[in-house]
Write a structure and sequence with these properties.
With 293 residues, this protein is α/β, with parallel strands linked by helices. It is 42% helix and 16% strand.
């Protein structure tokens, strides 16, 4: 059914960069996604020589990089005072991505507000316009991870940016867990923007305001104590191993095939006591769909 390559977020193994790369190879992945925000893979800490050596090491394992993670936290790009530094850092992460032979950096931009005339929407739009122009000029993408808003609302925001320099990292689990949106329908809505995907699964236990999950900057009336309470309880949804949640993988993968998506299915495992076992099972789960061809 699928011909997509299977990747793994190396950090999901929680053992460091090089050990994570070795484990990715061991479990049968073909590519890896790496965090490049801080620590040893912070662009500021990698000379050109170090970048060449890392690229060569990854290639020696028979792996390639599907994308870098460039999520800078702090409500994404909602805070106008923080944005200049965040935009600059994001550009440097994209430069690093290109040095490592990938043209995708995944990120969270913050929840896109409903009010298109509001100051937060304007702030986010302005920041993403600059990022989109920078990426477009290098045939690259900052890919927004799905989940904080519905696919239709995200599509409307993207359509206003003027290029595909800001695109989509499609995470079906985030959709079913947080907004309750249908990933299959979401794929078709966002089909023109999907450049990378996360393979993750989950279950929605009850409706939840996305702001209680992702937070928000300057959102009047937001109960910050309630946000902290909900985050601590974690009773609105649950991430589960691939194939054990609410994502209809047969229909979802068919939807990706229908829109002509040929990129990576990159496994992400953010919870659990034995991530290596869960990731190994996830690789085999996805390869079952490949075997059906």
């Amino acid at each position: 059914m699928i011909t997509n390559k299977i990747g793994v977020i190396a950090d999901s193994f929680r053992v460091g960069v090089k050990a994570g790369l070795l484990k990715a190879k061991l479990v049968g992945a073909e590519g890896v996604q790496l965090y490049a925000v801080q620590g040893e893979l912070d662009p500021a800490n990698l000379t050109q020589q170090a970048r060449k050596e890392l690229r060569a090491y990854i290639a020696s394992l028979g792996l390639e990089i599907s994308a870098l993670v460039g999520d800078l936290g702090g409500h994404g790009f909602q805070n106008p005072e923080a944005n200049p530094a965040k935009i600059e850092k994001s550009k440097r992460i994209l430069d690093l991505a290109l040095d490592l032979d990938t043209n995708v950096v995944t990120t969270h931009i913050g929840i896109v507000p409903d009010d298109r005339n509001g100051r937060i929407y304007h702030t986010m739009h302005e920041a993403c316009e600059e990022l989109a122009a920078y990426a477009h000029g290098m045939n690259a993408h900052f890919a927004i991870e799905t989940g904080p808003e519905t696919a239709a609302h995200l599509r409307a925001f993207l359509d206003g940016l003027g290029s595909h320099g800001v695109a989509v990292n499609f995470d079906p689990a985030n959709m079913v867990m947080v907004t309750g949106d249908d990933p299959v329908r979401g794929v078709h809505i966002l089909k023109d923007y999907i450049v990378h995907t996360h393979a993750k699964d989950g279950i929605r236990l009850r409706p939840v305001d996305p702001r209680y999950v992702y937070g928000g900057y300057g959102l009047e009336g937001l109960d910050h104590e309630r946000i902290a309470e909900q985050a601590e309880k974690g009773d609105a949804f649950r991430e589960v191993p691939l194939g054990e949640g609410s994502v209809d993988w047969t229909a979802y993968l068919q939807a990706l095939k229908d829109i002509g998506y040929h990129g990576y299915l990159t496994i992400e495992r953010e919870v659990g006591t034995n991530p290596e076992a869960d990731i190994t099972k996830a690789v085999q789960f996805l390869k079952q769909f490949r075997a059906e061809n």
